[in-house]
Sequence to fold (418 residues):
Amino acid sequence: MKIAIALFPRFTATDAIGPYEILSRLPGATLQFVSADGGILTSDTGFLQVVTEPLDAAPAPEILVVPGGPTAATPVRDPRLLDWVRAAHNTSQWTASVCTGALILGAAGLLRGCPATTHWSDVDQLAGYGADVLPQRVVFAGKIVTAAGVSAGFDMALALAGRISGDAAAMAIQLGIEYDPQPPYDAGCVRKAPAPIRALVEQRMRQAG
Amino acid sequence: MKIAIALFPRFTATDAIGPYEILSRLPGATLQFVSADGGILTSDTGFLQVVTEPLDAAPAPEILVVPGGPTAATPVRDPRLLDWVRAAHNTSQWTASVCTGALILGAAGLLRGCPATTHWSDVDQLAGYGADVLPQRVVFAGKIVTAAGVSAGFDMALALAGRISGDAAAMAIQLGIEYDPQPPYDAGCVRKAPAPIRALVEQRMRQAG
Fold:
């Protein structure tokens, strides 16, 4: 199982690392981090640098994963990335996104009429690509699977691992990474977070944009 | 707030990236990935390469975080890493570990008589360093905070974020990364996972050792 995770400048690290941590542990999996130019890419915070191969080093992955980041929603997306996503999707077994990575799938034209999800702050943008946006953490639609914001990539990848290798293999990965979450707060989605917390996050995201 | 995450060959990526994702979003935070020699380090799966600075580029972090990995438990740990952990702990405000990173804190002599936790597979080793091992996902003991396996770093870092910057700041980070986990299986800890799943994981961990 060949897996490729496509990075771009200012990617959000966990969007990529969650699926990496789970999918790379599937039996027989190999995984590449790729980007338009290859080389070292820096995450959204500016504090993490990851080494990537050029996109053409992963011409036909069986699973492609597109993470999000504050630049995923902008019109300056690299057309080489969109071309690669389209081509890889043509032959992939699974095409996945996390967070605003769904906007990249949308910009590549893959989500027209397709049920999908994204980070809660970008629902309207995703709908603008013709997606049928569902308020779910993970959405499967044929071979396309999209996840909500950042940390949802763990849940998406575990579900995908189960479909690919069976429940036992997925549960073994879950136990291996001790994924028995116990968040100390219950503010992880907009239905639960107090309104002032949401306002604070939206203000910061506009500043970071 | 200066944060340093100390990597070593074959680190487990999520052990490091979970705390990175949360702590680097604290107001005013800066974060460095460091390692004994600096340069590019490869994760346990072999598929992720991260750029690091040398340890002496982060001589006195206010928060130090030590992730785990299959080499964390071995006697071949780099003495320079242990020396740095000891020195950094002397002046840190918080000293944190995720997963078998606790074994590195233990080998550095920081956990004698100290309540602590680690990955479920390494409880006996941690006790061998004199730690009072608790079956908890996150353990605070003075300024030392330890987390259980891999994904527990998210819960640890969120709790730590709350202590450092207050509940509102921590909840804003939780909402920003949409950390409202919904694992598709309930096999994330040894009390819940079926016995054959545990046996499978233990077999794989011995092979990976």
About this structure: Chain B has seven helices and ten strands. Helices of chain B lie at 13-23, 79-91, 101-107, 123-128, 152-165, 167-176, 195-208. The mean pLDDT of chain B is 95.
